[in-house]
Amino acid sequence: MGLISSGLTHIGMKRKTNQDAIYLNPKKHLFIVADGMGGHNGGDIASQMAVSVIPEFVLENYGQDPIKLQKQAIAHANSSIKKRGEEDKNLVGMGTTVVSQLFRGPNLYTANVGDSRAYLFNNKRIYQLTSDHSLVQEKLNLGFYTREQAGDDPQKNVLVRTVGFESEVEADVFNYKVHRNDIFLSCSDGLHGKVSDSDLSYIINHFIPDPSKATQEQVDHTAQFLVDLANKNGGQDNISVILIIAQ
Question: Which domain CATH number covers 215?
Fold first, then answer.
């Protein structure tokens, strides 16, 4: 089974810097989205460290159990970012979200911390593979309100778990058996906060009607269209997208 992938990150329409970062390694089947936060370029540094430290750890320890490997790689990035923040008072409190996807054999291991997401598109349907580590998600879990109402919560950007802020962090890892024609999307909240799940599904199905025949050009075009739509819808945040098709 082969993979076709495309990824891009964009500053958006309102921000002065891009604190998102992405990593694509098609040969090793490792793909990462990170959305940094923190003043004095702290968010930029945190996300860049994540997409540097995590791949380095994964590739150096590639033979390990993939679930353990993903958890340890993110824990290692957490320690590195936390240490860097403690060395520079301007960077104290910096952190980043992470969605790390590792394809191993017939399986996909998706690890996440924060509110960057991974989606699966299968048989024209959309599934969210990750669960946000946010205050809004905790309220949703408790039944305080519906997903539609959650968009109006003034605390919708408050995260309860990030990489680099606390001395320790636990990543969630989800194991999924990959099927041919599966489409995977990982993204920062600059995309999923501006483009609804229903619109994401429509766009993917419209531009990639037959995943088995999808070309690199189609995947590139679809990823670019998603970024452009998020900007058209306001582009208040940085936007990052990685799109992958299993063929």
Answer: 3.60.40.10
